[in-house]
Amino acid sequence: SKMDLANALRSAYELFGCEVTFGGSYPGWTPNVKSEILDVLVSIYEKQNNEKPKVVACHAGLECGILGTNYPDMDMISFGPTIHGAHSPDERASIKSSQKFYKFVLEILENIPMKN
User: Fold this and answer.
1) pLDDT tens, 64-92?
2) CB-count burial class (<10 Å; 0-12, 13-18, 19+) for 61
């Protein structure tokens, strides 16, 4: 669907006589819903917050797409604090969620299982 949109935009600009080129494409990433690391993080989150986390797929997996292309067997997830206005001059992070995120990361680092 990304290329369909890109080609639709190209067509519109070419109607105005513009030359269109594409660049800066990044690979996609399909999250592994059976991820071992996801299970660990869900468990820690539930322990800290007495509720289940909202596990969703969103656009925030850029780094996972790049890493997954080079390391296809790597178990990974993408997570972080709540961001508002991403990729704009108004981008900002929620302080409350950043504090919660920091506490979460510290416990992950203390309890992450070793892999052989």
Assistant:
1) 888 988 999 999 988 999 999 988 999 99
2) buried
